């Protein structure tokens, strides 16, 4: 069997393990869906009048606008939990056994990211279901929804790559868990929850350049207006940048771990 | 001739036990300061983030407070109290998992004393994130609430942390696992934020306005906020106090019931 085929089999096996592990422990999934759902309800109900502000983009409702924000929050938490799961594997010695096996190192990270992608996919579907149940219209139709789901899933994997790099570098679940507040910082400093033009400085300027703003807009546009090739392309570019960062950091962390043991 | 040893009065022994449990919680902060960081960081990030994101809401007709910082800071302080109280529940769950609570249960200390130690420690500890958020908010533009406003806010924060600690302890004693932590935290988050946290009642969506009207914590939020957005009055304070007493009575009783049901 060729090397690539073997590696694909390893990724598949580790990915299935990761997915099973994720869905076997609902307490790990709960924060990923419960917290963003709670915040979606609170922000939609509490700040729903914001759509009347001058300069707010035309949307059917604030819920429709906020769906992308809730998905972004869930995918960030999914990425963080993927990092935690890898750190737990490191703490328990499972990754050491994989290091000793005749497999490519990158398959260890890619296998773990499969579980993160599954969580990202689940969260996108969950928030679409909630949005539709509470009357939000998806202007881009099924194709638009599919684009949004794909972007959310890909971003969850990309963020998971950074979580994995930190897990590989530190080897401690509590450190990765401690990054949770950073997730919120990154999102608050993006257009995930509000239009950039209506944000207050310095959040506004930071949000203009935050790659997660491009992803949030890429996910939001098919929901509130319809498919826009430019927004989708910008979101894909931002995801590619995060993937490259995650891969680079993971490769470095792996080399460091193998060197120091 | 040896002097006869007088028995320590029960009330003094109980107070000493509560004091010892509070000292243990305080030692945890001193020995592991990093453990307090999430409880301090989370409400601060929420304050800064929400202010940056939703600050323009003050431009809406009907939003009579000019500064969103002033409107939001008491909510973030109460949120910090909620997180701190929930963390007390997580710590109790850890004590259960590690067998520490078993040792306390076989001691002669009454169950209510063990619960009071946890709850009062959380009340005191909640003043740390509250002070941190306030110290960040004041230079950013939050109005000075005056001494009376500050005292009322801190009273609300301490009592809210006690409510959250009762909730967290009840769940910890029921599930006996730290994995109940999300339930402890999300319950408190919902209680504090399904109120007039983001906007005045008139500007909330109708469904949230209905929820906020029946949520007792709305009165707590309004009482804690009054010094920041106007003047402190008894009429603005007593509903918050009544709400907190009622919440403490209900959740405290439930937590105590779980504590009494817990066997070694």
Major beta sheet summary of chain B:
none
Report the β-strand fraction of chain B as a percent range.
Answer: under 5%
Helix content of chain B: over 70%
For the largest interface, the chains and their residue counts are: A-B, 35 and 36 residues
> Runs of chain A with pLDDT <50, length 5+?
none
Distance between the termini of chain B: 42 Å
Number of structural units classed as domains of chain B: 1
In angstroms, what separates the terminal alpha carbons of chain A?
A: 30 Å
User: What's the shape of chain A?
Assistant: elongated
How many strands of chain B?
0
Taking all residues together, what is the mean pLDDT of chain A? 85
Oligomer: heterodimer
Helix content of chain A: over 70%
> What is the β-strand count of chain A?
0
Return the average pLDDT of chain B rounded to an integer.
89
DSSP strand (E) fraction of chain A? under 5%
Contiguous uncertain segments of 5+ residues of chain B? none
Strand-helix topology:
The complex is a heterodimer of chains A (261) and B (264).
Chain A lengths: L2 H22 L1 H21 L15 H30 L2 H7 L5 H28 L7 H30 L2 H5 L2 H9 L14 H7 L1 H14 L4 H32 L1
Chain B lengths: L9 H22 L5 H18 L13 H30 L2 H6 L5 H15 L1 H14 L5 H30 L5 H13 L12 H9 L2 H13 L4 H28 L3
If you had to describe this structure to a student in words, what would you say it looks like?
The complex is a heterodimer of chains A (261) and B (264). With 261 residues, chain A is an all-alpha fold. Chain A is 79% helix and 0% strand. The longest helix of chain A has 32 residues, at 229-260. The model of chain A has no long low-confidence stretch (mean pLDDT 85). Chain B has 264 residues and is mainly α. Chain B has one domain (12-17, 34-261). Helix content of chain B is 75%, strand content 0%. Chain B is built from eleven helices and no strands. Chain B has helices at residues 10-31, 37-54, 68-97, 100-105, 111-125, 127-140, 146-175, 181-193, 206-214, 217-229, 234-261. The chains are: A mainly alpha (261), B mainly alpha (264).
């Amino acid at each position: 069997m060729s090397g690539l085929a073997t590696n694909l089999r390893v990724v598949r096996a580790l990915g299935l393990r990761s997915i099973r592990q994720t869905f076997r422990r609902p307490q790990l999934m709960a924060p990923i869906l419960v917290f963003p759902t709670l915040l979606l309800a609170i922000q939609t109900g509490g700040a729903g009048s914001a759509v009347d502000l001058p300069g707010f983009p035309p949307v059917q409702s604030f819920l429709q606008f906020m769906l992308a924000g809730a998905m972004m929050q869930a995918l960030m938490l999914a990425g963080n939990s993927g990092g935690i799961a890898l750190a737990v594997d490191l703490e328990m010695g499972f990754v050491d056994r994989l290091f000793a096996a005749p497999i490519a190192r990158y398959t260890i990270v890619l296998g773990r990211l499969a579980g993160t992608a599954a969580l990202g996919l689940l969260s996108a579907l969950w928030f679409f279901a909630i949005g539709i149940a509470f009357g939000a219209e998806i202007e881009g139709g099924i194709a638009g929804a599919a684009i949004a789901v794909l972007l959310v899933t890909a971003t969850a994997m990309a963020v998971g790559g950074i979580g994995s790099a930190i897990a590989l570098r530190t080897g401690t679940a509590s450190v990765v868990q401690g990054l949770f507040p950073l997730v919120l910082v990154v999102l608050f400093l993006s257009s995930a929850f509000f239009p950039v033009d209506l944000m207050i400085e310095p959040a506004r300027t930071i949000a203009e350049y935050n790659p997660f703003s491009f992803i949030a807009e890429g996910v939001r546009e098919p929901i509130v207006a319809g498919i826009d090739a430019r927004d989708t392309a910008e979101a894909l570019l931002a995801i590619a940048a995060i993937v490259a960062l995650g891969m680079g950091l993971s490769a470095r962390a792996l080399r460091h771990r193998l060197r120091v043991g | 001739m040896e002097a006869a040893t007088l028995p320590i009065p029960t009330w003094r022994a109980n107070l000493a036990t509560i004091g010892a449990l509070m000292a243990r919680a305080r030692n945890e902060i001193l020995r592991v300061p990093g453990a307090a960081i999430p409880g301090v960081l989370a409400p601060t990030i929420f304050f800064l983030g929400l202010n940056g994101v939703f600050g323009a809401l003050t431009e809406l007709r009907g939003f009579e407070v000019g500064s969103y910082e002033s409107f939001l800071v008491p909510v973030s302080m109460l949120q910090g109290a909620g997180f701190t109280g929930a963390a007390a529940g997580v710590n109790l769950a850890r004590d259960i998992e590690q067998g520490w609570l078993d040792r306390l249960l076989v001691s002669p200390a009454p169950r209510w004393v063990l619960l009071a130690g946890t709850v009062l420690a959380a009340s005191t500890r909640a003043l740390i994130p509250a002070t941190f958020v306030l110290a960040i908010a004041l230079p950013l533009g939050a109005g000075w609430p005056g001494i009376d406003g500050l005292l009322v806010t801190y009273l609300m924060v301490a009592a809210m942390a006690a409510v959250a600690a009762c909730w967290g302890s009840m769940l910890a004693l029921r599930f006996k696992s730290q994995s109940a932590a999300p339930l402890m935290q999300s319950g408190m988050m919902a209680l504090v934020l399904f109120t007039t946290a983001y906007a005045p009642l008139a500007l909330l969506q109708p469904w949230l306005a209905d929820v906020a009207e029946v949520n007792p914590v709305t009165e707590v939020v309004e009482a804690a906020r009054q010094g920041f957005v106007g003047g402190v009055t008894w009429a603005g304070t007593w509903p918050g106090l009544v709400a907190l007493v009622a919440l403490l009575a209900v959740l405290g009783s439930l937590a105590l019931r779980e504590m009494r049901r817990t066997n070694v």
